[in-house]
Amino acid sequence: MTGTLYTIGMGPGDPELVTLKAARILAGVPVVAFFAKRGRVGHARSIAASLIGAGAAELRFEYPYTTEIGHDDPQYRVAMDCFYGKSAEAVAAALDGGDDVALLCEGDPFFYGSAMYLFDRLARAYRSETVPGVAGMSGCWSRAGLPMVHGDDVLSILPGTLDEADLVARLSGAHAAVIMKVGRNLEKIRRALELASLIDRAVYVERGTMSGERIVPLRDLVTPTAPYFSMILVPGRQGVR
Ligand SMILES: C[S@@+](CC[C@H](N)C(=O)[O-])C[C@H]1O[C@@H](n2cnc3c(N)ncnc32)[C@H](O)[C@@H]1O
């Protein structure tokens, strides 16, 4: 019998925010799979460090690129498609051999999660179960002490990769917002928040729930770029509800 693919949300960074279900599965699976940037342990793998059972085999998939070429470069798309195809083949081989595989993912897998690249290629062909994780934004707003939405407030979740006009249009009139994928988009996001008159409510969170965490009003952030694990939160209604 073939194995089961478990796609597992590892939460925002603090290992105590991993679910009991994820921990139970990780303790028992014979194979753990995860993505990692070149030369790095892999963020989801580092969250799982104390939870993986002794003797589990590891499938570490190292991204061919991180920031070397643009994501809209055709060469990038071809290389990444090939990378995800080969990674899926390696997971399929373990499943075909009868082993269950836990595929790790930061935060929640179905929320901008990298694991979806393998899920899309494998979930129809194998038994599959997805374990939700605490999303990064949830960890960030909890650490920042920011109640975000209430009652009929609407929360807008935006990737910072959108172009400036699109960001301004979507932020204008927003009750509350989360802007993900800040990185090199920081200055553009800052301008968009200024134009949407939300800059004074915006809070920057870097490495929320992890070591090196930093939480500051966006106005106080002077750097022109931000690291990968950063987001901007604009809470909804202020004051006592
Ligand atoms: C590819 S998305 C993955 C989202 C993930 N699946 C989740 O549920 O949060 C990566 C983006 O999530 C955000 N992110 C995730 N965890 C974070 C954290 N602990 N602190 C700050 N930003 C985080 C950052 O904006 C980062 O660029």
TrEMBL record:
<keyword id="KW-0489">Methyltransferase</keyword>
<dbReference type="GO" id="GO:0009236">
    <property type="term" value="P:cobalamin biosynthetic process"/>
</dbReference>
<feature type="domain" description="Tetrapyrrole methylase">
    <location>
        <begin position="4"/>
        <end position="217"/>
    </location>
</feature>
<dbReference type="GO" id="GO:0030788">
    <property type="term" value="F:precorrin-2 C20-methyltransferase activity"/>
</dbReference>
<dbReference type="InterPro" id="IPR012382">
    <property type="entry name" value="CobI/CbiL"/>
</dbReference>
<keyword id="KW-0949">S-adenosyl-L-methionine</keyword>
<comment type="pathway">
    <text>Cofactor biosynthesis; adenosylcobalamin biosynthesis.</text>
</comment>
<protein>
    <submittedName>
        <fullName>Precorrin-2/cobalt-factor-2 C20-methyltransferase</fullName>
    </submittedName>
</protein>
<dbReference type="InterPro" id="IPR014777">
    <property type="entry name" value="4pyrrole_Mease_sub1"/>
</dbReference>
<keyword id="KW-0169">Cobalamin biosynthesis</keyword>
<dbReference type="InterPro" id="IPR035996">
    <property type="entry name" value="4pyrrol_Methylase_sf"/>
</dbReference>
<comment type="similarity">
    <text>Belongs to the precorrin methyltransferase family.</text>
</comment>
<keyword id="KW-0808">Transferase</keyword>
<dbReference type="Pfam" id="PF00590">
    <property type="entry name" value="TP_methylase"/>
</dbReference>
<dbReference type="InterPro" id="IPR006364">
    <property type="entry name" value="CobI/CbiL/CobIJ_dom"/>
</dbReference>
<dbReference type="InterPro" id="IPR000878">
    <property type="entry name" value="4pyrrol_Mease"/>
</dbReference>
<dbReference type="InterPro" id="IPR014776">
    <property type="entry name" value="4pyrrole_Mease_sub2"/>
</dbReference>
<dbReference type="GO" id="GO:0032259">
    <property type="term" value="P:methylation"/>
</dbReference>
